[in-house]
Amino acid sequence: MIIKYNRFLGEVWLWMIFWEWIRDTINEINIFYE
Predict the structure, then answer these.
(1) Which listed residue, of 11, 15, 17, 20, carries a Cα 20 to 30 Å from 26's Cα?
(2) Each residue of 5-27: b (16+ CB within 10 Å) or e?
(3) What SS3 state is found at 13?
């Protein structure tokens, strides 16, 4: 149970980093096109 819980938190953490990276990339593209 604890192992599954830690694995779930790890996946959520990776998704958060992934979305932060996507948002930063979109912001840079928007700045580039302005």
Answers:
(1) 11
(2) eeeeeeeeeeeeeeeeeeeeeee
(3) helix
Q: From first to last of the 34 residues of the chain, give the pLDDT tens digit.
A: 677 778 888 899 999 999 999 999 999 988 887 7
pTM metric for this prediction? 0.53
Q: CA 23 to CA 19: how far, in whole Å? A: 6
Give dist(CA 30, CA 19) in Å, integer: 16
Element at 1 (helix H, strand E): none
Count of positions (residues) in the chain: 34
